[in-house]
Each structure stands twice: as C-alpha cells, then as structure tokens.
Amino acid sequence: MTNAQTTPVLPKAAIKPTELTTHGHTRIDNYYWLNERENPEVLDYLKAENDYLEEILAPVKDFRVKLFEEMKGRIKQQDESVPYKEGNYYYYTRFIEGGEYPVYCRKPGSLDAEEEIVLDVNEMAKPYSYYNVGGLEVSDNEELVAYGEDTVSRRMYTLRVKNLKTGEIHPDAIPDTEGGSYAWAADNQTLFYIRKDPQTLLGYRVYRHALGTDPADDVLMYEETDNQYYMGLGRMKSKKYIAVVSDHNGVATEYRLLEATNPTGEFAVFLPREKGHEYDVQHLETTFYVRTNWKADNFRLMEVKENKTNDRSAWKEVIPHRPHVYLEQLDAFKNHLVLGERQAGLINLRILDRKNKQEHYLDFGEPAYVAGIGHNPDFNTNILRFGYSSLTTPGSTFDYNMDTKEKTLMKQQAVLGGFDASKYTSERFFVKSRDGAKVPVSVVYRKDTPKDGSAPLLQYSYGSYGYSTEPGFSSTRLSLLDRGFLFAIAHIRGGQEMGRKWYDNGKMLKKKNTFNDFVDVSDYLIANKYTSADRLFAMGGSAGGLLMGAVVNQKPELYRGVVASVPFVDVVTTMLDESIPLTTGEFEEWGNPKIKKYYDYMLSYSPYDNVKEKAYPNMLVMTGLHDSQVQYWEPAKWVAKLRAMKTDTNQLLLQTNLEAGHGGASGRFEALKEIALEYAFMLNLVGIRE
C-alpha cells in the first residue's frame, strides 16, 4: 500500500452578497458576513485557512522551528535594563532565563541595596494565554503602584493597585481603562484614570477614584464629547500637575491641568482647542515650555508663565520655526533644555544651557541611525539619558553630561551567537518619486552579499499617521541578512521623516503619494541591481498593510512575495462604520467617506474594493481574532476575495492568531514564532530552507 500525496484543499468562504450604498453608489460585498465574530461558520473558515497554511508550509515546518530557535538564541535570556533614579529608588526591568515577560524591580537609595520586586509579570501571566501589563505608576510615598492588566488583547485594561510594602493587591479593580493613562494625586490615595467606551474602544471619560472605595462612586472629572479626539492622562515631570490631553490626530490639541495637591479641584484648560493648532507642554518651576505649530508648520518652542497660558501674546519664542528642521522632541531640566530635531530624515539632539544660553549638538557619525531622548525623570541633574541604534549597531543606552560633554555607554543590547557588526554595512540614499519628491531609503546587508540583482531583498514601510520608520537595529533581521537578503526601509510620505509637509503630503486626498513612493523605490532597487523582481519582497503591517494591498493592486509584477500583517484593507466600509473602534478618530488621516470627494478617493485605492481578476504575487496575510485596531474580518475578507478572483497559482496564505490582537502574541519569545513564519515563507520562495 502506498500513501498518495493529497493536494491541500483550498479554503473557500461562502459568498453571501450584501449591498452597501453610499452617495447613490452601490457596492456588493460578498464577504461582509465574516464580521460575525461569534458565528461558528466564521471561526470554521478562519481555522480552515490556518490549517491550509500549515499544509502548504509543511515542507518548511522544521525550518520554522530552526529560525525560531536561532532568533531566540540571539537574545540574552537573563538581562536587565539600565536603572534610572526616581524619588528614593532606582528602577529597572529584568528578564529571567526562559521568562516570556519582564520582572519590574527597584532598589532603595543605592544599586547595592536589596532588590524589591514591583511586579513579576511571569507569575501574573500564568493563568492566561495572553497577558499584558501597562502604565505602571508609583505613588508619591513610593508605597503603591497602579497598573493596567489586559488578558484578551483588546487594549481594555483593568486598573489594579498593589501595596509595595505588603505585596497585597488591593480589591479596587476598575475595568475598561486606558492602559497607559493613570496618575496619582499627591495624597497617595487618589487615582485618576480614563475609562474607554466598550463599543468604540475610545477613551472618553476621566474619573477620580479614592483608594478603597467602590468604583461605582468614582467622580467624573471630564468627558470628551468629540469622538474624533484621542485622550491621554498622566502626571507631569515636575509632579506639580496632572494633565489630561485631548488630541485630534494631527489637527488639534487641548491640555487640561490640575494641581496634584488639589485632587478634588477642577481641571483647567491650558489653551482651548483650535483647529490646526497642535501643542505639547513641559512644566519647569513657574514656566511652561510649549512645543507648538502656531504659525510654524515644523513647530517651534515657546515659553509662558503659569498664570498666562491662555494669553498667546504672553508666549515668548525660545526656538524659532525652521522650514527644513522638524522640532520633534523636548525635555526640560533645571539647567538645560534638550530638543530632538529631525533634519533630512534623521534625529539630532540639541542641548541648550539655560544659564549661559550656549548650545551644542551630539554627533553620531553613522549614515543612518535612530536617536532619541530617554527616560529622564529627574529635573535636578546635568545627565541626559538617551538611546541610540543604527542598522548595524544594537540598541544602546548612553548617559551624557550636558556640561562636560562626556558620553558614557551604559548598556548595549547583547546579541548572542557570534554577532560581529563589522560584517554588515548600511547605506542611505534618496530616490526620486514620480512627482519629483526625494524619498530617503536606508539599506543594510552583509558586506559579502552581491549587488548584481541576484540577491533577495525585503522592502519595508509604514507611511501613515506621521509615524517615522527609524533605521534601527534588529537581531531577528540577522536571520535574513545572514542568508543573503538585503533589507531596505523606504521612508515614504505619510511618515514624518522629512518634516510635517512629508506627512501632510501622504494623507487624506494625497494618500496615493504613499503608495507611489513605495513602488518607485521598488523600481529603483531593481534598476540599480540591489535585487530583481523575482527576488523582491515587500512587508508592512496595519496601515502598512494597507500599503501592501495598494501596491499589489498597482504593480503586482514587481514582487515575488508580500507579507501583510494586520492589514487595514477594507478602507471605505470601515471608515463608514463609526461603531468600529478608532474610526471617528481617523477622519483627519483618511477623510470622512460620508463626504463624497473622500468616498470617491478612498474607493479608488481601497485594496479590498480594487481586487481584480489578475495575477498577484505570493502573499502571507496575518491577523488576530481580538484585534481592536484592524478588525480580523478585513484581512479575512481580503483573502477570500483574492482567492476567488486571482488568476495565478501563487501562494495565498492567511494566518489568524485566535488568541491575540493587533500586536500579535504576548511574550518576548512567542512573538518570534510569528516572525519565523514570515521569514520561512519568504526564504522558501527563493529556495533557502536551512
């Protein structure tokens, strides 16, 4: 008897036409029904796709395990962060051998003191398949820690409080909160938090909670009535104020402040919201420093006294607007100001001495890198903590003496397994897009990799929300580089690498610039022999997954394979549904399709709506059943439609993590299994299986 090889059965989602009519225009959505999360037929379809993926990739099953172990083997399992001092304690995070999650620790007074465990997340996570802790906030008396706990991956955190002296978890448990937005008042008894709408998942109410009381009695301090605004909350660095921030996604900002010593008082508006005005605030002694785009596209720095914030005529300019320099970061110290300024796509750190008015910049000396102001909770210091990384330099933490200009490396990410930075090199150049815009591109590869068109290359981008894709180091990426891949980041419009206009020219009715930039960079990489079309891969996630969907509709022949993670591909339908989490807050990014000009424009590029009967590249699509940002049904519908319409025999694979959300699996090692899947998919297609 012989075992005949069976052909994997293609999953097939049932066609159930739904008519969707807007502005007199009707679309037929055959897979609209896949949004029924609790429908057994939906779950059966997702499981069938998962099974199909495993059958197709069965020949590289062992290779996936090898890649996972290889990437895991580069991670120093027993590791800890560089401690920072806040109040009377040094705080740090460490990982234990085999531990998926961090252990948050502190030591009183000295690094030689006995360790106190704040939270051991490994122990806390044991009962759950998914677990995440967010927003640790220690009270002024340093005896209590507030934190958020998410056990589903919907980013709906339950607020809890632990007594750090006794180890007791207080009975106070407040569900549906914003995980990173907690603040203690100075009395060590009062907590402020943001409650989220269970339907839209938007934070919309600020409450005051007295420790030990029934959360049902919590006092509503502020309600955001405009659902286009996102909210944040926290204690300012000076500790004097608790701040509530309402942000309209790159359109307007409004701060509300309450003195921490007056928790039963009312929040006062720093400066009322005004369309087109974005600002953020740092408090120092009796002065506020304001990073603002008031009459300054790329932002400028102003200062104002505490009692004059509402009077912009009282604001004094500290750093003027510059058309080619984007003011991105700000930190304030007793004697210094530190600015993160982005020019030609790269961050420069600028130090200003508040006493003698002198200034200088830090020099980094590499063509492509990422630098940023670190966590600096202490005002009364001349030491700046900053982070640095490049495509060939592992993440590094430095302490910098702002007076003597002495730079001290405190820690560099350990990369086990014989990593040698001298074997790799990076490049940075500009590619002219079809409309003349010059797009920065960062590339890294092994020095022995040929640049004659024969090497495979992975091109990555995001290109939305003004989020700049930084050319930083990745130890997992070595598994591609060491097998002959080049890795390229296209810093396309929609990000903010080249300033605010770079973002503005890649959103709303200019969104197609984002897709065109990516395709034009791909053409350049092929024309200049970095790779060839049969060895070029593209990758993006979330809004970068929209990018993937758009470019495979525009020019599918350019790519051997595409990886789209949690892709936002059903743009029009999602943006018409204001009950879906985050939709209303996105109108200033994509447009509101209830307005016809935006509907027409979005419809012209929405990946799901523009699937055609034609050949597509090999594709791996990944999603999470509990995703709160891009609902699982978007990628599921997209794959179902592609499977029904595409004319090629290339691989089309959908993987749904049935226990995770937008960020994928929790835990530092579990997440590597998803990366191993992505890499095995690509490497297999170019014949590399070991």
From TrEMBL:
Gene3D superfamilies: alpha/beta hydrolase, Prolyl oligopeptidase, N-terminal domain. Cleaves peptide bonds on the C-terminal side of prolyl residues within peptides that are up to approximately 30 amino acids long. Has an absolute requirement for an X-Pro bond in the trans configuration immediately preceding the Pro-Y scissible bond. Belongs to the peptidase S9A family. GO terms for molecular function: serine-type endopeptidase activity. GO terms for biological process: proteolysis. Residues 473-687 form the Peptidase S9 prolyl oligopeptidase catalytic domain. This is Proline-specific endopeptidase. InterPro entries: AB_hydrolase_fold, Pept_S9A_N, Peptidase_S9_cat, Peptidase_S9A, Serine_Peptidase_S9A. SUPFAM superfamilies: alpha/beta-Hydrolases (SSF53474), Peptidase/esterase 'gauge' domain (SSF50993). Residues 20-413 form the Peptidase S9A N-terminal domain. Keywords: Hydrolase, Protease, Serine protease.
